[in-house]
């Protein structure tokens, strides 16, 4: 299994985010689950990659040339694809991944997860999407998902596609057990 992890290129202010990224990376590596990520050595990205590698897992990074050139590429990865654009990065990560997890992060993290989740709703893939809800980081977003559902912009079935967990083992168990719903408009 290969899991794409979307997360911050910074570590945030709460040290619990770094600890959680380390715990998830270690658990993925111990479970023989390979990491697909944005290829950077900085922030939570670098933390989760380092933890997977330290636990004996493989890490496949995908980084745009412009970011590699700023010396942000992680030097110790199992595989590193260098692509021309952010669009190519997202497409390559989606192609490689069997599942998607968002750790704490900013707008880029949300954009990547929301795109994967939307593609799942539309039936472009049948892969699970998850929030690693460390310290309740995504609680306000989950409230908004409830609002989207309540206002009729998201079906309850498609809201339930989004896996939420705050510990690595239940998160991975839910990814493995995922059964996708019928496609939107089917």
Automatic annotation (TrEMBL):
The keyword Hydrolase applies. Its EC number is 3.2.2.n1. It catalyses: AMP + H2O = D-ribose 5-phosphate + adenine. Pfam families: Lysine_decarbox. It is an enzyme of class 3 (hydrolase). InterPro entries: LOG, LOG_fam. Keywords: Cytokinin biosynthesis, Hydrolase. PANTHER family: LOG FAMILY PROTEIN YJL055W. Belongs to the LOG family. This is Cytokinin riboside 5'-monophosphate phosphoribohydrolase. It comes from Marinobacter xestospongiae.
């Amino acid at each position: 299994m290969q899991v794409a992890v979307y997360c911050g290129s910074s570590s945030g202010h709460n040290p619990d985010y770094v600890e959680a990224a380390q715990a998830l990376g270690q658990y993925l590596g111990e479970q023989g689950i390979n990491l697909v990520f944005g290829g950077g050595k900085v922030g939570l990205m670098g933390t989760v990659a380092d933890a997977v590698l330290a636990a004996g897992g493989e890490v496949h990074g995908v980084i745009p040339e412009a970011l590699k050139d700023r010396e942000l590429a992680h030097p110790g990865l199992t595989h590193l694809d260098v692509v021309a654009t952010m669009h190519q990065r997202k497409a390559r990560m989606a192609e490689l991944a069997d599942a998607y997890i968002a750790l704490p992060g900013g707008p880029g993290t949300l954009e990547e997860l929301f795109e994967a989740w939307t593609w799942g709703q539309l039936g472009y893939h049948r892969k699970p999407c998850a929030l690693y809800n460390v310290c309740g980081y995504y609680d306000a977003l989950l409230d908004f998902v409830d609002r989207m559902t309540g206002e009729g912009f998201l079906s309850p079935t498609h809201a339930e596609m989004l896996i939420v967990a705050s510990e690595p083992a239940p998160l991975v168990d839910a990814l493995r057990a995922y059964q996708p719903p019928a496609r939107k408009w089917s």
